[in-house]
Design brief:
The chain has three helices and three strands. The chain is of the alpha+beta class. Helix 1 (26-33) crosses helix 2.
Length: 80
């Protein structure tokens, strides 16, 4: 009996998004970051998050999402 090995990328169960891809669309990256698409598009427009533009398509690299999160960590204390 032959068995076939299926190679599938791990997928986030709740959203169905594959977070192991090196590049994510705006909706995928927004989901990954836990923000809305509109907020992410505003960050892109203000060039606050690195992104890749290919024609009209905007992609955000997973490493850039992670870097954005690291750069925006707020240490203990109150924000003004």
């Amino acid at each position: 009996m032959k068995t076939s090995l299926q190679l599938t990328a791990p997928v986030h169960e709740a959203s169905g998004i594959n977070y192991n891809k090196p590049n994510m669309s705006v909706p995928e990256a927004a989901q990954f970051l836990g923000i809305g698409c509109r907020t992410l598009r505003e960050l892109i427009a203000r060039q606050e998050i690195r992104h890749v533009r290919i024609g009209r398509r905007v992609l955000i690299r997973k490493q850039d999402c992670e870097a954005f999160m690291e750069e925006n960590i707020v240490q203990g204390g109150r924000s003004l």
